[in-house]
Design goal:
Blueprint lengths: L1 E4 L3 H12 L5 E4 L7 H8 L6 E4 L2 E4 L1 H12 L7 H9 L18
Parallel strand pairs: 1-2
Antiparallel strand pairs: 1-3, 3-4
Length: 107
């Protein structure tokens, strides 16, 4: 899970929602790393934060991100959002594209 953030309240709210569910994530702070703004713009067409990605799928900003997490909360197949993450996201192959590291947290 990758979250593009800033030091704004919406970003903090989305991060808290992930933490509450014990979901592992990597944060790319545009405040701390403004050079990553171009990456976000190329991925979603704007530099509006927060932006949530699960594996390489763009979920959206705060509203869509919270809606997706609530959907995970009510999954009939898994007891917790972390169980869903471990079953469906964690086994996905690593992103192996040397030319595109826009979602790499440490690029």
């Amino acid at each position: 899970i990758i979250v593009f953030t800033s030091h704004d309240l919406n970003s903090q709210q989305l991060l808290k929602a992930l933490q509450k569910r014990n979901l592992p994530y990597d944060e790319i702070s545009l405040t701390d790393r403004p050079s990553r703004t171009a990456d976000l713009e190329s991925l979603v067409g704007a530099a509006i934060v927060p932006q949530l990605f699960i594996h390489t799928r763009h979920v959206g900003g705060l509203e869509r991100g919270l809606k997706e997490l609530k959907r995970w909360d009510h999954s009939a197949r898994f007891d917790t959002p972390l169980a869903k993450y471990e079953a469906e996201v964690l086994p996905l192959p690593e992103i192996d594209d040397d030319d595109d590291d826009r979602l790499a947290p440490n690029a």
